[in-house]
Amino acid sequence: MPDMDPVRNPYAPGAGQRPPELAGRDDELSAFDVVLERIAHGRPERSLVLTGLRGVGKTVLLNQLRSAAIGRGWGTGKIEARPDQSLRRPVSSALHMALRELRHPDQESMDAVLGVLKAFALRQTADAKVRDRWQPGIDVPATSGRADSGDMEIDLVELLSDAAGLAADVGKGVALFIDEMQDVQGDDVSAICAACHELSQQGAPLIVVGAGLPHLPAVLSASKSYSERLFRYLRIDRLDRPAADRALLAPAEREEVTFEPEALDALYAAADGYPYFVQAYGKVTWDVAAASPITAADVAMAAPVAEAELAVGFFGSRYDRATPAEREYMHAMAELGGPAGAAVSTSEVAVSLGRRPASLSPARDSLIKKGLVFSAERGQIAFTVPHFGRYLLSHPAE
């Protein structure tokens, strides 16, 4: 009966942090392997978009897919989109890394594409913020007349076509990974869709893999109607019971620790299958347990501690970013949607607050921009964070 050493605690709750056991994502990983294999054989394949609430492990899965591409010798680059930033600079950095990873043997061919990349990077809009201006560490002169028109759609298509050509030369591909894709600016979303459309028609070995909140498909569709056929959408959801159990048991058993069945029942009820919560409750439960096997009594002792930590780090940090008007809006959503955080209609929120819907639009739009809520469907609004309704109901507005 081993002692429970906190130093050996295997659980890792953290934003985008890979859990010790990536459970329940085998289907997505297998599907991506097929995509990579098909593209390697010159078969047409759609780019990929992962969607889901916060805490379901989209960033972890995105990183794992990137590792799979790197394992096949692909050139890869990753971007985290921000609502206030043009994609020109981050795409430049990401593609620079991808081209270096490809290790093309002909330096002249490589230099030609690097010249186009430099031209693309340096073609800033007049109102670009100083921090968005990037001086690329590329020793070749910028090419003139390619990817430097200033029209993001034209420039991105030309740049990605050239990058894909280099990859094709060496029998590999390029994969551009975009996290928080719902925050990409409108013109840039349109450019990404157009580039993916053009490259898929060419059969070029370049794909975009995006991850974002549940309303991302609507953002893409509003930009280009054909985006519904352009991307393969994978909805990333909570783990089912066997996968949640495996996420807890596999790392523990490597440390010669196990759980009683009742403890796993209690942990699944508490974490509700959300990977972030599975790690958070697992970590605290390990720390309070005296010995293996971990019992339901250990979980009962750990749960209030884990909830208090989540209240500060996971929920509170997000709540603190909201203004008083935005907090009032979210509390009204919680009252209407209940602890389960069901989607509610914006008109119901207005009635609940005794306000005209138009007067609440600024608060709602700001909450969407901050990534705290999303438009579930027309006229409906929901929290991006699981259990946020429950948190708000247990923390009344001041």
User: What proportion of the residues form beta strands (DSSP E)?
Assistant: 5-15%
Q: What is the annotated CATH architecture of the largest domain?
A: 3-Layer(aba) Sandwich
* Domain tally: 3
The percent of residues in helical segments reads 40-55%
**What is the rounded Rg?**
23 Å
What is the succession of H and E elements?
Answer: HEHEHHHEHEHHEHHHHHEHHEEH
Tell me the total number of β-strands: 8
Low-confidence stretches: none
**Adjacency order of strands in the biggest sheet:** 2-3-4-1-5
Tell me the major beta sheet. Answer: 5 strands, parallel
Structural class: alpha/beta
- Please name the CATH topology of the largest domain: Rossmann fold
Mean pLDDT across every amino acid position: 90
CATH class of the largest domain: Alpha Beta
Report, as a whole number of angstroms, the end-to-end distance. 48 Å
Q: Work out the helix count.
A: 16
Large-scale geometry = globular
Pfam families: AAA_16
Keywords: Heme, Iron, Metal-binding
Organism: Geodermatophilus siccatus
Protein name: AAA ATPase domain-containing protein
Structure description:
With 398 residues, the chain is α/β, with parallel strands linked by helices. 53% of the residues lie in helices and 9% in strands. It has helices at residues 26-40, 58-71, 88-102, 107-122, 152-169, 186-202, 216-223, 227-230, 241-254, 261-271, 275-288, 296-319, 324-337, 346-353, 357-369, 388-394, and strands at 47-51, 75-80, 174-179, 206-212, 231-235, 344-345, 373-374, 380-383. The radius of gyration is 23 Å and the shape is globular.
